[in-house]
Design a protein that fits this description.
Blueprint (H helix, E strand, L loop, with lengths): L9 H33 L3 E7 L2 E7 L6 E2 H27 L3 H9 L6 H29 L3
Antiparallel strand pairs: 1-2, 1-3
Helix pairs in contact: 1-2, 1-4, 2-3
Length: about 150
């Protein structure tokens, strides 16, 4: 019999779900920005520069950035938010007591473009349905005559 979350953990699960949803959206957006940045950098041979002689924001030929390299900034930001995303994935996974394969599937959402958006919607729907079902079952047990 698989382990199930404890009813006492339901408020923590809701908090973990919200944290996961926020980190999923941020990581997904940063991954899309990273993909666009890689396309611009390696196909069109440009990088995004901020505060350089070309103006506040400008595309400059690759390897000629003299100010803040936003291309590198996007890469670093996605990397750090992916770590936060993995933490939120682990927290929700452990509270829900899911099998390890589900943890890996959710983790892939932060490295496959667009996947985090689809996985986030599906996971949120599953968790909310599970919590609603368990709470109604628990309520019925309390109300049942003895």
């Amino acid at each position: 019999m698989p382990l199930e979350p404890k009813a006492a953990d339901f408020p923590r699960i809701r908090g973990a779900l919200t944290f996961y949803q926020v980190s999923s959206i941020i990581t997904g957006v940063l991954l899309l920005l990273l993909c666009a940045e890689m396309l611009i950098k390696y196909v069109f041979q440009y990088e995004l520069e901020m505060g350089g002689p070309q103006g506040f924001l400008a595309f400059v030929p690759r390897d000629t950035v003299v100010a803040v390299n936003l291309s590198t900034g996007i890469l670093i930001a996605h990397g750090w938010f992916y770590v936060v995303y993995l933490f939120s994935d682990f927290r929700l996974w452990s509270l829900m007591r899911w099998p390890f394969g589900r943890f890996v599937l959710i983790a892939l959402g932060g490295v496959v473009p667009f996947l985090s958006f689809f996985v986030e919607v599906r996971i949120a729907r599953q968790v909310r349905a599970y919590l609603a079902r368990r709470e109604s079952e628990d309520q019925q047990l309390v109300e049942a005559p003895h």
